[in-house]
Design goal:
Helix content of chain A: 25-40%
Oligomer: heterodimer
Number of strands of chain A: 10
Shape of chain B: elongated
Strand order of the largest sheet of chain A: 2-1-3-4
Radius of gyration of chain A: 25 Å
Shape of chain A: globular
Order of helices and strands of chain A: HEHEHEEEHHEHEEHEHEH
Radius of gyration of chain B: 31 Å
Largest sheet of chain A: 4 strands, parallel
Number of strands of chain B: 17
Structural class of chain B: alpha+beta
Number of helices of chain B: 11
Largest interface: A-B, 38 and 57 residues
Distance between the termini of chain B: 47 Å
């Protein structure tokens, strides 16, 4: 027997070879009957998942109601949920700042905005940048609110549909049949916006934030950015900024200023009194908490309000 | 070999203790080198092959293929260029496998600081001895050997090494929080420190945070203080610490998809998936896919050519030793002439003396050989668990 053979026998007997030949991969034969866990960062995407998969998945809408994806961070329990998820759905396009600091599994995470990367826009320049007493997010670079354009949301939904089918191959028929219903709803919203755009071409609007850049771009309108926290008190500085903005615009604005949430009464009245701009709430609905199912209704309501406002029959914002 | 003959030979050897021990030691020392080298190379080859088998496909930027292999699988050395994280995301989106990105640019007390995703833990079937895999910024899981060497455990903290002392942009060590210690794997993972990709990017300067400066307390750091902003100077900060207060300020600039990774390990679903991904990577000129086993065989072929020279040298030494041993035996017979005559006079049969001498030599050679095997085995054991063996 050669010395080499003796040596190998001795080594294997004493367990010197710690590494198994297959590199230590273990068979994974875990049978789990519970529905797959899908964690979704923002409400519009949670709505898409619920529309497509229904009860076939356990859906967690991650962000609590009213949270800003730019400043919110998951706590340890929410991180546990993310780590346990079978699928993590993010919007991407730099929207979820927390996701850029958290280590997420690549293959179980999808950033659906990547599906419309060719149509990404950049936030327009800011005129003023008042975050209010609590501070806020600085919106610069690529605009992340892609879902507000129904056509882009449909492309994002397509990615979600494909991943859900991959996750639930047995549910393919179920998901595909629900897909048609979802497309019909999104098309309906898109057509409503298209009609509004056609009846009011080349409108110039003011946004109290940068969020509406995608739908405004789709409608071939122009949005001037005038960042104001809705809870800010009306003051001389804002008044001067607004005057400067209105004076610098090439075309006179249509008399509408968008808000993500209802502005303080004083602020709304101050703006209306000085410039005649009517406040219209068009919620981004980024974090509706458990009410994510209301996403589409909120968008329809916003478009109705906008239609009334630019037709000169504005009701409450 | 009869019992009395063996007994007589043993008595003779024990009578000439020094000579016997010296001869056995000489034989052992001549044998230990080739045996140990052979065993170590076999161990080395087996471990390298096990790692390469479990990681069949690796992608990196064009450059030295062996550098990429050693870097991605064994966390040693550097690669010339990096590739964007986008490659890993797109590979994952293809549905043909799990891409495991690696960003290896920093170190902790000389141990490689490996930035990766939680996919690595699953890919290598890593078991945590204590704690959990890093999830947030500055969290780190230590390999079993490095944790033992640094005497560090869950709840502790340690700073990364500073590589760019003269970096004017300010490259500060990052204080890592130990959140986990891996179970022993017998692989390079034992000697590595694992962090998230984001943490590794902080260390390499791809992601940064903003320190909050109080101009009243930190007046020595203030370069310029205006009504709406404070400019800090580049005074040396001992280590950057990620705290709940400043965690939110860490951010990348530019496209997050363009953040660099040094290599991507591909855990393909099956052979078909591996083939599709490999051909996709080959079509992209900015990427270099390598088949780990093929590359390893080429690398080992070079090592084996060097070993052939060593083997030839060992053979010459053995031949020289055998000749010297023959000379020593011949001289020994001369020295023991009176002893031989005495044996013949007391009636030792014909050929008895020759058989006795042969028995003595056989015992010495066997002892030397066994000692050689024992020493080689000890050397392999020491190196296998010590710092000398690469993988």
């Amino acid at each position: 027997m050669s010395s080499r053979l003796i040596l190998l026998v001795l080594i294997s007997l004493t367990g010197c070879y710690a590494a198994s030949p297959d590199g230590g991969k273990l068979p994974q034969a875990v049978v789990d009957e519970s529905p797959p866990l899908v964690v979704v960062s923002i409400s519009p995407l949670a709505w898409i998942v619920s529309e497509l998969a229904g009860e076939a998945v356990e859906l967690i809408a991650l962000m609590p109601e009213g949270a800003d994806p730019g400043i919110w961070s998951p706590d340890s329990m929410e991180i546990d949920q993310l780590m346990a998820a079978d699928l993590i759905i993010l919007n991407g396009a730099s929207l979820e700042a927390w996701a850029q600091r958290l280590s997420l599994p690549i293959v179980r995470t999808i950033e659906v905005a990547r599906a419309c990367r060719d149509q990404w826009l950049r936030y327009p320049d800011v005129v003023t940048h008042s975050h209010g007493p609590e501070g806020g997010t600085s919106y610069e670079g690529v605009a992340g609110h892609t879902w507000l354009d129904p056509q882009l949301l449909q492309r994002q939904a397509q990615v979600i549909r494909d991943r859900l089918i991959q996750l639930l191959p047995d549910q393919r028929g179920h998901i595909e049949s629900r897909w048609n219903g979802l497309v019909a709803k999104l098309t309906s919203l898109d057509e409503k916006m298209a009609q509004l755009a056609a009846s009011h071409p080349d409108l110039v609007l003011i946004g109290s934030g940068p969020f509406w850049i995608y739908p405004v771009h789709r409608m071939k309108w122009t949005l001037h950015r005038f960042d104001i926290d809705p809870q800010t008190e009306w003051n001389e500085v804002l008044s001067a900024d607004l005057t400067r903005l209105l004076g610098s615009a090439d075309t006179a604005p249509a008399g509408v200023i968008f808000w993500d949430q209802p502005p303080a009464a004083g602020l709304r009245e101050g703006i209306e009194k000085q410039s005649g701009q009517v406040s219209i709430v068009w919620p981004t609905a980024v974090s509706l908490g458990a009410n994510y199912a209301r996403y589409l209704d909120l968008q329809f309501e916003a478009v109705d309000r906008l239609q009334s406002a630019i037709s000169g029959a504005a009701g409450p914002p | 070999m009869s019992g009395p003959m063996l007994r007589l030979a043993l008595r003779s050897l024990s009578h000439h203790k020094v000579r016997t021990v010296v001869l056995a030691l000489c034989i052992a020392l001549v044998g230990v080198l080739p045996t140990a080298v052979d065993g170590l190379l076999e161990l080395y080859r087996t471990r390298l092959a096990a790692r390469a088998t479990s990681t069949p496909l690796v992608v990196g930027a064009p450059g030295s293929r062996s550098d990429l292999l050693i870097h991605a699988l064994y966390f040693r050395g550097d690669v010339e260029r990096m590739i964007p994280r986008r490659v890993a995301i797109e590979a994952g989106e293809s549905g043909h496998g799990v891409p495991v990105p690696i960003h290896l640019k920093g170190s902790v007390n000389g141990h490689p600081l490996v930035g990766t995703t939680p996919d690595y833990e699953k890919f290598r079937s890593i078991k945590m001895n204590r704690g959990h895999w890093p999830r947030k910024l500055a969290e780190a899981a230590f390999g079993s050997k490095v944790a033992k060497e640094l005497g560090i455990d869950v709840g502790g903290s340690i700073a990364t090494d500073v590589h760019k002392l003269h970096d004017l942009a300010g490259s500060y060590p990052l204080l890592l929080k130990v959140t986990g210690v891996l179970s022993r794997t017998g692989t390079p993972d034992d000697d590595a420190v694992f962090v998230s990709l984001q943490t590794s990017w902080v260390v390499s300067g791809e992601i940064h945070g903003h320190l909050r400066i109080d101009p009243e307390k930190d007046f020595n750091l203030v370069l310029e203080n205006q009504s709406n902003h404070i400019t800090a100077n580049a005074a040396v900060v001992e280590a950057v610490e990620v705290t709940p207060e400043n965690e939110d300020s860490f951010h990348p600039h530019g496209d997050p998809d363009a953040l660099p990774v040094t290599a991507i390990l591909i855990d393909a679903n099956d052979d078909k998936g591996a083939t599709i991904l490999r051909s996709r990577f080959r079509r992209d000129e900015s990427l270099q896919p390598i088949d780990s086993l093929v590359e390893l065989r080429e690398l080992l072929a070079v090592v084996m050519r060097a070993k052939a020279i060593l083997d030839a040298n060992s053979m010459l030494v053995i031949v020289a030793t055998v000749l010297l041993l023959g000379l020593i035996v011949t001289l020994d017979v001369k020295v023991r002439e009176r002893e031989v005559q005495t044996l013949e006079r007391i009636g030792a049969p014909r050929g008895f003396v020759a058989r006795l001498l042969f028995t003595e030599i056989a015992i010495v050679v066997c002892c030397g050989g066994l000692l050689s095997l024992f020493l080689a085995r000890a050397a392999i054991w020491f190196v296998a668990d010590g710092p000398l063996l690469l993988p």
